[in-house]
Design a protein that fits this description.
Oligomer: heterodimer
Number of helices of chain B: 14
Shape of chain B: globular
Strand order of the largest sheet of chain A: 5-4-6
Radius of gyration of chain A: 20 Å
Largest sheet of chain B: 4 strands, mixed
CATH topology of the largest domain in chain B: Butyryl-Coa Dehydrogenase, subunit A, domain 1
Number of strands of chain A: 9
Radius of gyration of chain B: 21 Å
Number of helices of chain A: 11
Strand content of chain A: 5-15%
Order of helices and strands of chain B: HHHHHHHEEEEEEEEHHHHHHH
Helix content of chain A: 40-55%
Distance between the termini of chain A: 33 Å
Distance between the termini of chain B: 47 Å
CATH class of the domain at 1-64 and 189-348 in chain A: Mainly Alpha
CATH architecture of the largest domain in chain B: Orthogonal Bundle
Order of helices and strands of chain A: HHHHEEHEEEEEHEEHHHHH
Largest interface: A-B, 48 and 43 residues
Strand order of the largest sheet of chain B: 1-4-5-8
CATH superfamily of the largest domain in chain B: Acyl-CoA dehydrogenase/oxidase, N-terminal domain
CATH topology of the domain at 1-64 and 189-348 in chain A: Butyryl-CoA Dehydrogenase, subunit A, domain 3
Shape of chain A: elongated
Number of strands of chain B: 8
CATH architecture of the domain at 1-64 and 189-348 in chain A: Up-down Bundle
């Protein structure tokens, strides 16, 4: 994001093309993905900076799919690192999804959203609620049993734990049809897999960063609107300073993402370290910010559906999906230990 | 370098920004020079922010004072990112860079932004040649963070202004030739932000007295007393009475220049954990340092591109830098313990850590108290 913008302007910029991200060309390509063992699931001209920007935009509340270019809409998906493989899921209902269904019935997307844009879809482990039937759009379930969903939001259900519901031509995969993924098939080369995982972490990291910014903006509005002791909360210095601390910590996150993308050209090690650490930072920040947001809402934050709860829940889901901050840091430490000649304790 | 891993990390994290060829070349030159200087000394921790004439001459000879000023004004025509790199490397090598920031970021850049062409011609080439040392006189005993409360008076006379009053914590005043001074030129004003004037005061005149104040870390600060010091009309920066606008520019430039990223990185390297335990916390701080470094380049680049850098953005950088340096100094304390300051791996390092620890309040407060900066960010950045 550009220096000199207010948070609101940042979001406007992120939402409106042309994108504010001006990044050097990063040689992600189908060839590269094929080398990672992921070629079959990839799309031809993937532009990570654009995807990051779009993820960012989707995180702050805009529906993701309509704003996407055609090829991306077709293949719009999320990276998931499960075990050791990075997996991309196309949007349900697309040809890509059909292809995926035929070739790899591995992961399952479920999906929610109603006319009003928000809905709560109870999803339990391995037991999608019947309410899911008739809902369109992607969803994802995780350890959390309940989700607040935006229409069109993508959520990814780890294998064996969910199902895609049929609606207007959507492929449907009952749970029985779900087969385990043979991750070994993709784990051709440890570093390549690590790089693929780091890519996923980077993209999810961008989402979480966006969620944190969105949470902060909601909190800002709250501080201006909520009056206590006869004045808005925003007039209390303690609250103002807390907001500033969070904003100041969020500000350079984009630089870390950009630096990671640039590092891709330098070499895999550098890219992996940077991407993992940047993502880990975004994750920790999102926790910090959303925890503070909860306090700004006072008692209302006990409730299920106070405004930032959507982001809070989302971070709880997406962080594990991307590889938790703790694990990403662990991986970085492992890489350092290896270069030190000590026994590494990396995840790989 | 004690660790292969640390070396690898360092090498990797020298990147991350699209430096051009000139900037990379400069970085190598600065590293070479600083390494060589470290064998001669004195070093930064010994003299604090004081100017070391031998070192300052070397900076000038190499064209590093006013690196980003136009060649017509004695500069080297490079980018502000280059200046940021220079400061970072000097800091990292603990080089005694006293005088550089006041010359470049305070006086030179201020005149580039707000000065007349004559003022620029008069000062910048001499600054770049190292012939003039500048200092900054803003704070007063009764006006610290609240600069609109300054009471040092500027009395108009035929030939210029006459200055009466007192400034405090003026770091370089005992060595400087000139001070940038904020004055109250009108007392009866509706808004305290009116009636202020910024001007350049010659410190060699008899009407200026300089007294020493010692910091807890043993560095020198000053109290400067003006008893009818003369300032000609040419040396008023901006308009008389419009000093607040000039001041805003000035403190923004200041805050953009004092992030001490090199020092933060150096301290982190010195506290590189020998064991796996502690690596995680260390790595987080390292990551924060990296974020700050990139933010610093982005700020410099924004100035380069002529974007409007708003004052709260300088504050943002400064607040983050102060927080981080403070956290890193805490790490130093945790890692070595207070006794560790005396019994570190080398006597020299013990003294460096001691100097840093003792001067931490100076690092936090210099350029503005964090609480006030945060107020500015909340008001102008978040519109709260």
């Amino acid at each position: 994001m550009q220096l000199g913008m207010t948070w609101e302007a940042m979001i406007e910029t992120a939402l409106a093309p042309p994108l504010d991200f001006t990044l050097p060309e990063v040689p992600f390509s189908s060839t590269w993905l094929a080398e990672q063992g992921l070629g079959a699931w990839w799309f031809p001209d993937f532009a990570p900076e654009e995807l990051i920007a779009r993820l960012w935009a989707s995180a702050v509340g805009r529906l993701p799919a309509p704003g996407l270019p055609g090829w991306l809409r077709e293949w719009y998906g999320w990276s998931v690192s499960l075990g050791r493989a990075l997996v991309w899921l196309p949007l349900p209902g697309t040809a890509a999804a059909g292809e995926l269904a035929r070739s790899q019935p591995a992961l399952v997307t479920v999906l929610g959203g109603d006319a009003e844009g928000v809905s709560r879809v109870p999803v339990a482990w391995g037991r999608p609620s019947p309410k899911l039937a008739g809902m369109a759009g992607p969803v994802l379930a995780s350890k959390v049993s309940r989700l607040c969903l935006w229409e069109g939001e993508t959520v990814i259900v780890p294998q064996g734990l969910g199902a895609v519901e049929r609606k207007e031509g959507l492929a449907m995969f009952p749970l029985d049809y779900v087969e385990p993924v043979d991750f070994q098939r993709y784990a051709v080369d440890g570093r390549a897999v690590a790089r693929a995982r780091a890519t996923g972490a980077l993209l999810w990291g961008a989402w979480l960063w966006g969620a944190a910014v969105a949470g902060l903006l909601l909190a800002r509005r709250r501080l201006l609107e909520r009056h206590q002791f006869g004045r808005p909360l925003a007039r209390f210095q303690a609250t103002r300073h807390q907001m500033v601390d969070l904003a100041v910590a969020l500000e350079p996150q984009a630089d870390l993402f950009e630096a990671a993308l640039r590092a891709y050209q330098e070499g895999p090690e550098d890219f992996i370290q940077r991407a993992n650490l940047a993502a880990a930072r975004a994750m920790r920040l999102s926790h910090q910010v959303l925890k503070a947001c909860a306090l700004f809402w006072g008692g209302y934050s006990f409730l299920q559906d106070y405004p930032p709860s959507r982001y809070t829940l989302a971070t709880r889901i997406f962080e594990p999906v991307a590889g938790e901050a703790h694990d990403l840091e662990e991986e970085a430490i492992g890489t350092l230990s290896r270069s030190e000649g000590k026994a590494g304790e990396s995840q790989l | 370098m004690r660790s292969v891993a640390l070396a690898a990390l360092k090498a990797s994290w020298d990147g991350g920004w699209p430096f051009d060829r000139l900037e990379l070349k400069l970085r190598e030159e600065v590293r070479g020079f600083v390494g060589e200087w470290a064998r001669r000394g004195p070093l930064w921790w010994q003299v604090g922010n004081q100017m070391v004439p031998g070192f300052y001459r070397e900076l000038a000879r190499r064209g590093w004072i006013g690196l980003h000023w136009p060649p017509a004004l004695g500069g080297s025509g490079m980018s502000r990112v280059a200046t940021a790199l220079l400061l970072e490397e000097l800091n990292y090598g603990l080089a005694p860079d006293g005088g550089l920031i006041p010359a470049v970021a305070f006086l030179g850049d201020l005149l580039l932004a707000c000065g007349t062409p004559e003022q620029q011609q008069r000062w910048l080439p001499r600054l770049a040649r190292g012939e003039v040392v500048a200092s900054l006189g803003l704070t007063e005993p009764e006006a610290g963070s609240d600069l609109a409360a300054v009471s040092t008076r500027a009395e108009p006379r035929e030939e210029g202004l006459e200055v009466w009053g007192e400034k405090i914590f003026t770091g370089l005043a005992h060595q400087a030739d000139v001070a940038i001074v904020l004055l109250r030129s009108e007392v009866q004003v509706e808004d305290r932000h009116q009636g202020l004037t910024v001007c350049l005061v010659d410190l060699h005149q008899p009407a200026v007295g300089v007294e020493e104040l010692k910091t807890w870390g043993g560095w020198r600060q000053n109290r400067v007393v003006f008893q009818g010091a003369k300032v000609s009309w040419d040396e008023v920066v901006g308009e008389v009475g419009q000093g607040w606008q000039v001041l805003t520019t000035l403190i923004n430039l200041e805050r953009s220049a004092i992030a001490r990223i090199g020092l933060i990185r150096r301290l982190l390297e010195e506290t590189w954990p020998d064991h796996r335990e502690g690596t995680r916390d260390w790595l987080r701080l390292w990551q924060e340092a990296e974020a700050l470094r990139l933010l610093n380049y982005r700020m410099a680049q924004a100035w380069d591109l002529g974007k409007r850098v708003r004052p709260f953005q300088g504050s943002l950088l400064k607040v983050r830098a102060a927080q981080l340096l403070d956290e890193v100094i805490d790490l130093v304390r945790d890692r070595f313990g207070l006794m560790g300051f005396a019994f570190n791996r080398s006597p020299e390092m013990a003294q460096i850590l001691d100097a840093v620890e003792r001067n931490r309040a100076l690092f936090t407060i210099g350029g503005g108290v964090p609480a006030v900066q945060k107020d500015a960010i909340a008001k102008f950045g978040l519109n709260l």
